[in-house]
Structures are given as C-alpha cells and as structure tokens.
Amino acid sequence: QSALTQPPSVSGSPGQSVTISCTGTSSDIGSYNRVFWYQQPPGTAPKLLIYDVNNRPSGVPDRFSGSRSGNTASLTISGLQAEDEADYYCNSYTSSSTYVFGTGTKVTVL
Amino acid sequence: EVQLVQSGAEVKKAGESLKISCKHSGYSFTSYWLGWVRQMPGKGLEWMGITYPGDSKTRYNPSFEGQVTISVDKSITTAYLQWSSLKASDTAMYYCAAGYAFDYWGQGTLVTVSS
User: Which of A22, A107, B44, B88 is the most exposed place for a label (fewest CB within 10 A)?
Assistant: First the structure.
C-alpha cells in the first residue's frame, strides 16, 4: 500500500494559520470517515489530534481542525504557537481493511 | 488512566530472533484494537498491523506480512511484536498504540540490528 501524500514542510509565523494537505485515493480517504491526524514533537511518541475527519479528542485545543474534500484531507492549525512545531501525520482506513499513514509534514514556527 | 508501557531498547545481530512487548493497563484490554507502528531513523510512521485481543483477529500491512508476528497474551494484558530472523533494515523505533483511533501510545522501543 502506498503512503498518503503530504507536503514535506509548511511554516508560519505565530498567530498565523497553516494547512497541511493529505492526498489519498478513492480506496482510502475518499471512501471512509476513518481519517486521523497525529502530532509528533521531536523525540516523543505521536499524539492523536483529530479522529473521523474532523473530531477532536478531549484536551486537544480547538485551534486544530480537520476537513476533507474528495480524496484529500486537511489539517488546519489556527493561531499558530511555538509549541505547535512538530511533525504531523495523517492516517486513513483503506479498502484492504488496513490503515496507511501519510508521508509526514514538518511544521516550523518562524 | 490508560497506559501502554513497552519493553526496553534492544541491540541484536542480523539473523537473531526478537520479541518486544507492550503492557496495557487502565482499560479493558479486550475492547480495543492494538497496533504496531515502525519509525525508521529520521523517517515517517509506517502502519505495520493491528490485532483485536477479544478474538485475536489480526491484520497486517502487506509490506510486513510474513516478516513479523503480532500476538497477545490476554492473561497478562500484553501485546507482542516478534521477528524470527532480524535484518539490519529492521533498525527502527517501534511504537504500540491502542484504541479506535490509536488514541493511546507507548513510549517506543528502539531496536538496533547490526550486520
């Protein structure tokens, strides 16, 4: 299974908004609501940010939001903060009853 | 509080076998899917496979099927990832994660394989 496609890096100044795209196919993102986003600061384990396309677990700030259009999911970070600097990964259920991660995006706060 | 505690770092030689563990506490072990994720040095996350401890149903990423085995011991609420013959390319950090959305993660186990 091929990894979902994410931009290698995005950057923004504090307070700005950034959006990370995650492109898959009609066999994964385009067909299932099981799309997830994770944040991984350097040297730490990943943390769940978004589940089922656009839902936030308890404790995740509402600055983080998810959406989907066709075969592409997106994560938007509004009001960027220094602590948001991390790697971000999308993940989707697939028609093979497995899951696949995205290639990962490094967010830099300028 | 849900906790996943993984076994410690391993240094092995190519061709050796290995079994790493992930101990669960704080929730019903048989109620959530549990999976393993690989992260090679400086690289991204790779979904390896998942198992449902309730009925031991297991699914693998085709890239890992036949290369590793995922298992559980319900009596001690522990999941395992094992290799019968390690390769240098298995050098990576391995995470266990549990829950519908991989809500909970272990701290990771670093596996280093020398050739």
Answer: B88
- Tokens 């995650």 sit at which residue? A22
Taking the CA of residue A99 and the nearest CA in chain B, the distance in Å comes to 7
Q: What b-and-e string marks burial along A46-63, b requiring 16 or more CB atoms within 10 Å of the CB? A: bbbbbbebbebeeebeee
List pLDDT tens digits, range A11-23.
999 999 999 999 9
Q: How many residues does chain B have?
A: 115
Contact list in B for residue A40 (CB cut-off 8 A) is 45
pLDDT in tens, B20-48: 999 999 888 888 899 999 999 999 999 99
Nearest CA in chain A to B109: A45
**A64: DSSP letter:** E
**Residue A58 and residue A66 in contact, taking contact as beta carbons nearer than 8 Å:** no
DSSP of A79-104: S--GGG-EEEEEEEE-TTS-EEEB--
Contact B18, B12 (CB under 8 A): yes
The letter for the amino acid at B61 is N
Instruction: Decide if B106 touches A, using CB distance below 8 A.
Output: yes
Phi, psi for A100 (deg, rounded to 5): -140, 135
Low-confidence residues in chain B, pLDDT < 70: none
Interface A:B, Cβ pairs < 8 A: 61
